[in-house]
């Protein structure tokens, strides 16, 4: 049993997963990830570089990945915004890499020391163009460790950038944990694997074998730029997205907390699942059939899962530390099978269990939710 | 033994007073004692001198919500911290306020203890956080001294360990004095 911080758990998970290259630029609340990697990587024959900014950080990570290393960077919203160009480049070049974004209040410099879940849409759609990307999150220090390992595993398996969304609270929180043994996916390389290096091919290592082209231009399976016939590039984009769709069950992680027989469901993720769980405990004591689904995979959005629960419950409460983001794909998946109620704040505070209970009871007994009223009355010290 | 389960601890003070380290020590010692622990922290954009807060929850059960709403034990080691974090307290909670705060603020419903002065007597003012931990274990019995000492051996720099261990004893002693009880 050890007492460790969320950011430390993230660094430990990365090292356990085989990460041997880190490039980054410090920022609250992600800096400790960088500090841990700087301390640990040299002894493991790894490389740590502090770059001039976040754009360069992800560029270095992509380069290291092509050179054969499992590689990562970590930042917060402002740095994640800068990285977006290279998120697209990583996606276009099918480069495994892990990007941790410990969310703080935004936009811009925003609320630098306070938690947020405001980057959920940015993590999916921050870079331009259609692209394949996986986005994970965690609601405890232990889960941060587990999901960091999973981020590397999925990144290597599907050759996509994987974003792990943490937040200021999880990043700085310490909990007693027993770190579990986890399966590690090693990179499959295929130096002599024919001419194709993209599409469904294993990773092609640099520095050995014939020369290959890697480009951000639309290209064919060999990597040859193909910009006059758009369907060639589209074919690769679709392949990358299809891989994630077909293997969705493998990619989707979530925790079911008393949701099996629930008549009313809380759908949440990350740190917000903590007050949600406390709310479920309290309401179950009172005999109210409430349950929680704590999503750990946000993208690809687990639409089948959410859809199946929406068929069994009478209403769904969706608290988020933003002004309504993941509720958009949730509503699209639920398609009116159950009423969905948003519950949002972007003031740098966590929801309290009491606020979630009050919101849940309002929808259970009144069939409506005036979320501003609940949050305001508590702000005013009631 | 925990006076209450879960037991909510809030430590507050000025950035630089070692509030975070004190919280980590409570969490680490609590874990060694066999409890589940969660420690969170909050501070402003300023690295030093702003009001800083560290919270620890100790429980025999799993801890769902990681923050403290109404502390069972509240420490205010500076005036700003008292003003900002000193109000909320559980009904039967214990509020400990540094004596220097009373020079500028009227302090009610609290045990007022000269922790900074005691720290100076021990060696340096910077160990006021550990004096406060001595007060904490003496008055609450939430964690035993042996686990706190063991946590300190792991988390405190060796050159400062002696001074900190003395500060812990000093904290226990001043908490025993009768005049403390008056508030």
Question: What's the SSE blueprint?
Answer:
The complex is a heterodimer of chains A (382) and B (183).
Chain A: E1 2-5, H1 6-17, E2 19-24, H2 31-40, E3 47-50, H3 54-66, E4 70-75, H4 77-92, E5 97-105, E6 111-115, H5 120-125, E7 134-137, H6 141-158, E8 161-167, H7 168-172, E9 174-177, H8 230-246, H9 248-251, E10 254-257, E11 264-269, H10 273-285, E12 290-295, E13 297-299, H11 303-310, E14 315-320, H12 327-334, E15 340-344, H13 353-366, H14 371-379
Helix pairs in contact in A: 1-2, 1-6, 3-4, 10-13, 11-12
Chain B: E1 7-14, H1 19-33, E2 36-43, E3 51-59, E4 73-76, H2 79-85, E5 94-98, E6 111-113, H3 115-122, H4 128-140, H5 145-155, H6 158-176, H7 178-182
Parallel strand pairs in B: 1-4, 4-5, 5-6
Antiparallel strand pairs in B: 1-3, 2-3
Helix pairs in contact in B: 1-4, 1-5, 3-4, 3-6, 4-6
Structural notes for this entry:
The complex is a heterodimer of chains A (382) and B (183). Helix content of chain A is 40%, strand content 21%. Chain A has helices spanning 6-17, 31-40, 54-66, 77-92, 120-125, 141-158, 168-172, 230-246, 248-251, 273-285, 303-310, 327-334, 353-366, 371-379; strands at 2-5, 19-24, 47-50, 70-75, 97-105, 111-115, 134-137, 161-167, 174-177, 254-257, 264-269, 290-295, 297-299, 315-320, 340-344. The model of chain A has no long low-confidence stretch (mean pLDDT 95). Chain A has 382 residues and is of the alpha/beta class. In chain B, strand 4 (73-76), helix 2 and strand 5 (94-98) form a beta-alpha-beta unit. In chain B, 51% of the residues are buried. Helices cover 43% and strands 20% of the residues of chain B. Chain B has a single domain, classed as Pyruvate-ferredoxin oxidoreductase, PFOR, domain III (Pyruvate-ferredoxin Oxidoreductase, domain 3), CATH 3.40.920.10. Chain B is of the alpha/beta class. Chain B has helices spanning 19-33, 79-85, 115-122, 128-140, 145-155, 158-176, 178-182; strands at 7-14, 36-43, 51-59, 73-76, 94-98, 111-113. Classes of the chains: A alpha/beta (382), B alpha/beta (183). Chain A binds chain B through residues 1, 3, 112-114, 169, 172-176, 271, 274-275, 277-278, 281, 350, 352-354, and chain B through 24, 27-28, 31, 35-45, 63-67, 69. Strand 9 of chain A pairs antiparallel with strand 2 (36-43) of chain B.
């Amino acid at each position: 049993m050890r007492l460790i911080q969320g950011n430390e758990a993230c660094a430990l998970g990365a090292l356990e997963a085989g990460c041997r290259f880190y490039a980054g630029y410090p920022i609250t609340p992600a800096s400790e990830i960088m500090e841990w990697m700087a301390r640990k990587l040299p002894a493991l024959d790894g490389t740590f570089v502090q770059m001039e900014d976040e754009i360069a950080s992800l560029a270095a990570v992509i380069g290291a990945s092509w050179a054969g290393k499992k590689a990562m960077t970590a930042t917060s919203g402002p740095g994640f915004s800068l990285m977006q160009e290279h998120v697209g480049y990583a996606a276009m070049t099918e480069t495994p890499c892990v990007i941790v974004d410990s969310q703080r209040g935004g936009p811009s410099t925003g609320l630098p020391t306070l938690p947020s879940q405001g980057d959920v849409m940015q993590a999916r759609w921050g870079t331009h163009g259609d692209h394949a990307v996986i986005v994970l999150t965690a609601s405890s220090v232990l889960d941060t460790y587990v999901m960091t390992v999973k981020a590397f595993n999925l990144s290597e398996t599907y050759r996509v950038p994987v974003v792990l969304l943490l937040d200021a609270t999880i990043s700085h929180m310490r909990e007693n944990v027993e770190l579990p043994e986890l399966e590690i996916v090693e990179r499959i390389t295929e130096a002599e694997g024919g001419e194709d290096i993209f599409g469904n091919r294993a990773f092609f290592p640099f520095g050995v074998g014939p020369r290959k082209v890697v480009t951000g231009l639309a290209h064919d399976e060999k990597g040859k730029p193909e910009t006059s016939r758009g369907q060639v590039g589209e074919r690769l984009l679709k392949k990358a997205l299809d891989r994630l769709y077909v293997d969705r069950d493998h990619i989707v992680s979530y925790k079911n907390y008393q949701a099996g027989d629930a008549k009313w469901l809380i759908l949440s993720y990350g740190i917000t699942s903590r007050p949600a769980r406390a709310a479920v405990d309290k309401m179950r004591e009172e005999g109210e059939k409430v349950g929680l689904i704590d999503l750990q995979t946000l993208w690809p959005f687990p639409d089948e899962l959410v859809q199946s629960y929406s068929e069994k419950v009478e209403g769904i409460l969706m608290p988020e530390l933003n002004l309504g983001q993941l509720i958009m794909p949730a509503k699209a998946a639920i398609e009116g099978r159950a009423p969905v109620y948003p519950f949002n704040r972007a003031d740098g505070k966590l929801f309290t269990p009491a606020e979630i209970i009050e919101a849940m009871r309002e929808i259970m007994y009144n069939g409506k939710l005036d979320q501003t009223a609940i949050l305001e009355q508590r702000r005013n010290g009631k | 033994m925990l006076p209450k389960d879960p037991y909510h601890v809030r430590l507050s003070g000025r950035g630089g007073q070692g509030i975070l380290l004190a919280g980590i020590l409570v969490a680490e010692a609590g874990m060694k004692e066999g409890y589940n622990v969660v420690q969170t922290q909050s501070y402003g954009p300023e690295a030093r001198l702003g009001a800083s807060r560290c919270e620890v929850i100790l429980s025999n059960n799993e801890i769902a919500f990681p923050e403290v709403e109404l502390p069972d034990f509240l420490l205010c080691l500076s005036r700003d911290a008292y003003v900002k974090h000193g109000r909320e307290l559980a009904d039967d909670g214990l509020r400990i306020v540094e004596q220097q705060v009373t020079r500028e603020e009227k302090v009610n419903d609290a045990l007022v203890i000269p922790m900074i002065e005691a720290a100076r007597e021990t060696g340096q003012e910077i160990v006021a956080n550990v004096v406060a931990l001595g007060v904490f274990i003496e008055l609450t019995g939430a964690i035993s001294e042996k686990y706190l000492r063991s946590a300190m051996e792991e988390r405190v720099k060796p050159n400062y360990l002696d001074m900190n261990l003395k500060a812990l004893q000093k904290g226990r002693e001043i908490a025993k004095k009768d005049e403390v009880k008056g508030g």
